[in-house]
Amino acid sequence: MLAISHFIICLVVRTAEVTMAKNSSGLADNAEVQNERSKSLSVFGVLISPKLRASQLSFEKALETLIEIANLQKSLLYSFHQLQKVEDTKE
């Protein structure tokens, strides 16, 4: 159980790092992404099942989507509050 928790934490951190790298430089280096994925899976040994690799990719995609959704939510809330301020000043 501890290995799985450690794996999830490492995966979240690495996915966030890759996402930040994509945001700052446009696209992350594909070799760098593959290297980070390999490091994350290395806690499970040398032979990694294809299902575990597939689940890692699904998790990364889901996490990136969640980050995008959170950023959109923040942007929408900011716009809503700005609109409320404008309406309050009109009254």
TrEMBL record:
Alphabetical UniProt keywords: Signal
A biological process (GO) annotation for this entry? Answer: vacuolar proton-transporting V-type ATPase complex assembly
Signal sequence segment: 1-21
Q: Which domain of life is it from?
A: Eukaryota
Q: Which GO terms describe its molecular function?
A: unfolded protein binding
Residues annotated as transmembrane: none
Which PANTHER family is this protein grouped with?
COILED-COIL DOMAIN-CONTAINING PROTEIN 115
**Annotated protein name in UniProt:** Vacuolar ATPase assembly protein VMA22
Which organism's genome codes for this protein? Answer: Glycine soja
